[in-house]
Amino acid sequence: NGNMTFWTNATERMRILSSGGLTFNGDTAAANALNDYEEGTWTPTVTAGASAINVDSSNCIYVKVGTMVLCQFEITSVTSGNSSVLDLGGLPFTPSNEGTFSCMTNSVNWPTNTTMLSGYLNTDKWRFYGSQDNGGWIAITGSQLGTGDIIGTITYRSS
Prior knowledge:
Helix content: under 10%
Order of helices and strands: EEEEEEEEEEEEEHE
């Protein structure tokens, strides 16, 4: 049928579909096939809150398996940060929906009473939020990041 199958002990272990993609352990559904793998570098960008961001490009890498994308980043500072919310872009693939991500910081001027930092992304931007003690979330501005350093990992499904 044009597919290539690999067997051990009379059990199918892997199949290369003639239409493209890999399936495993007897699964023949094209919808379940692994059809993409890619890795490379990416460049985070700023769309609001500063005139530019500086990054450590050796730490801005991604891996894409199927529709799942894992991005690592390191922002080392912002240029001309202002009081607008720091909106970032440049993800290597467009997220299919909103989500969160993890990060750690060094020398960042967080708002008073900020107890936790979280990352948020949607289909057109990603940004940082601080959680207020006995309060809500506050979006971080470019001037609050300043010369601080943020290292993080973003995982999302691409559209």
